[in-house]
Amino acid sequence: MKLLSAFIILFIAAPRAFGQSTQTFTVTPRFTTLRNAELPPHIKDQIAHVYSTWFSSPSDPPYLLPKEVVLDFNVSFPHLANHGRQVILLESTGTYAGATGNGQMWFFLRSGNSVRLILYASGFLFYPSHSYDVPHPVYRDGLRDIAIGWNMSSSEDGIHVYRFNGHDYISDYCDSYNTNDSGNTKLGQHEKCEN
Predict the structure, then answer these.
(1) What is the DSSP letter of 29?
(2) Is 103 in contact with 126 (CB distance < 8 Å)?
(3) Scanning 17, 34, 104, 194, which has its CA 20 to 30 A from the CA of 58?
């Protein structure tokens, strides 16, 4: 019995005795603001330096959004990498987001002390999302394919699938889908995306 008691005490005390941390880490909630995200200040500054093409004509250059506005945008950390790399998703809110759930999104790949923009898109994250994912995700160069949805009406929507080419996300194909009154979704045919 003394041997069992000694083993239990050693098992509980061992992490501290050998300098190992017993701290537990919390998972970031689905959304938090960039201002409140658990990121180093220099990473937040890099992310807050984003450009937008909304509210301008196609011939106008993208414009820099005010930092104080961007700090209140939503941030999440979707699981897109299969080898420990961190992807940070910044999503517009307020007047910089559409009334139908379509908004602006910036995907950043974090590498050490810096981040790099790998996709700027408009819509909403169709998959992977907190409510839907594909059964067998496809990974290319370490990051998985993602689909950006676009609400067109109450029952008809579009999907734009992007694949990672080792440096950025690029357009792969588009699709449409309809949702009936019962909530069942029917996908259309893959087709080349129109710009």
Answers:
(1) P
(2) no
(3) 34
Beta bridge partners of 64: 51
Query: For 130-139, which contacts have Cβ atoms below 8 Å and span 24 or more sequence positions?
Result: 130/30, 138/163, 139/82
**Burial of residue 22, with CB atoms counted within 10 A of its CB: 0-12 exposed, 13-18 middle, 19 or more buried:** exposed
Residue pair 105/89 in contact (Cβ under 8 Å)? The answer is yes
C-alpha torsion 127→142→106→159, nearest 10: -30
Contact 173, 161 (CB under 8 A): yes
Cis peptide before 58 (omega within 30 of 0): no
Q: What is the pLDDT along the chain (195 residues), one digit of tens a residue?
A: 443 343 333 333 333 333 333 333 233 446 799 999 999 999 999 999 888 776 666 677 788 888 999 999 999 998 888 877 889 999 988 878 877 778 889 999 998 899 999 999 988 887 776 556 676 788 888 899 998 888 776 667 788 889 999 999 999 988 877 777 776 777 777 778 876
Taking CB atoms within 8 Å and a gap of at least 24, the contacts of 67-70 are 69/94, 69/96, 70/34
Other CB atoms within a 10 A radius of the CB of residue 96 amount to 17
pTM confidence score: 0.75
| C-alpha count within 13 angstroms, C-beta hemisphere, residue 195 | 3
